[in-house]
Amino acid sequence: MDVLMPQLGETVAEGKITKWYKSAGEPVEPGDNLFEIETDKTSMEVPATAAGVLAEIRVGVGEVVPVGAVVAVIAGASADDQRAFAAASLEPARDGVDIAIPANARRHALPGKLDPFFEVRTPSRNYGSARLAGGTIITPLARRLAAEAGIDVGGLRGSGPHGRILARDVRATGQAARVGATLADGPAAERIKALYEPGSFEEVALDGMRSTIAARMAQAKQTIPHFYLSADITIDRLVRLREDINAASPRDKDGNAKLKLSLNDLIIKAWAAALQRVPAANAVFAGDRILKLHHSDVGVAVAVDGGLFTPIIRKAEIKSLSMISAEVKELSARAQSRRLRPAEYQGGSSVVSNLGMHGIRQFAAIINPPHATVLAVGAARRHPVEQEGGGIAFVSQVTVTLSCDHRAVDGALGAELIGVFRGLVENPAIALA
To answer: Which of left, alpha, beta for 259 (phi over 0: left; psi -120 to 50: alpha)?
Structure first.
């Protein structure tokens, strides 16, 4: 049975093997970890789905291969598994690829998804795939997308089984061409290096994460019509609420509080509530339509070595502060070790990016598609404010800047959203009601 490089998300086209847990010739059982892979965003262990012997390792540690490539072979599977794989009914799958799924393994598949470890093979029925010169096969959807985009498929490298060209290969080529055209306007690396004295610098090659960030942010800034709205928000009540909750937290045997909320935990809760109160802004842009979301799935920007993750707090509007705090801590810790699953950082309604802990007073964040908004939060500061009676009082304030995608969120709608958020932060009991 062939073991394939799994698909870890819609935008992931390849993976790097960083460790083999089994050696050739060793027996394996379903659930045994076979190898560890790393993509531009995460790393994870890949388990075996059938019993047998690891007969062959085709991809070594450090090698990068496309999704769907055969990385190993398991021999000696049970007779039932062998018959199931040999005679499995082929089911037409997305993008014209057929998946051979053993009947006794269907129970392991996630709802609505194809298990990436099952064998992928050339269709035995005609689904309209075309064979190019040289024997390469291209699926109908990929052929249509290439024709619409004016892409020459003759030079494409397919990521499907046996080098088959899939729709994702065409889309990736189109995106790379757009980003490459933008980057080509700048000076090439050799020209930049020529401006500096030899030996006065160190060259650091871009890894997968930094390359992806560079491409996605360049594309986002070029294709999303950003506009920005800033507001100063008084946080005295929010700070007092945090202090009261932490002071009332139960203590462990050493006297340490079991719950320790951060200011950002309360900001996430207030932002989730604001998105619910302004449902038209709780949306994402989707090409020819806007998706208005039912829940506030709030991403939290987490800086990691060499890049950034935005793990998602799902349904944040219905979660307690203690649940949000615990989830942020747990997801942030796994983000630091690049152990997040794609489902934990993909999608979402909006993102909260807080640089206040670094002393940054104000900044504007770049929208990460498909989001239509991102909230940038600056550092708290004491600020004099005129009172109703004419006197002056010092209050704690933060400056927040809302970046909006004008295709989905207009100026008045963005202003309404940030106004509702201000009201919730300045009167936090309402956000918790």
So the answer is: beta
Residues 257 and 199 in one domain: no
User: Of 226, 295, 383, 406, which residue is the catalytic one?
Assistant: 406
- Does residue 118 contact residue 99 with C-beta atoms inside 8 Å? yes
pTM of the predicted model, to two decimals?
Answer: 0.64
Task: Find, among 291, 285, 254, 233, the residue nearest to 406 by Cα.
Answer: 285
Supply the angle between the helices 140-149 and 167-184 in degrees, to the nearest 10: 30
**Domains in the chain: how many in total?**
3
Provide the domain limits for residue 164.
Answer: 128-223
- Provide φ and ψ at 261, rounded to 5°: -75, 145
Does residue 406 have an active-site annotation?
Answer: yes
322 CB burial (10 A radius; 0-12, 13-18, 19+):
middle
User: C-alpha angle 157/115/58, rounded to 5°?
Assistant: 50
**What pLDDT, in 10s, does the model give residues 105-155?**
333 333 333 333 333 333 333 334 455 555 667 776 777 777 767 777 776
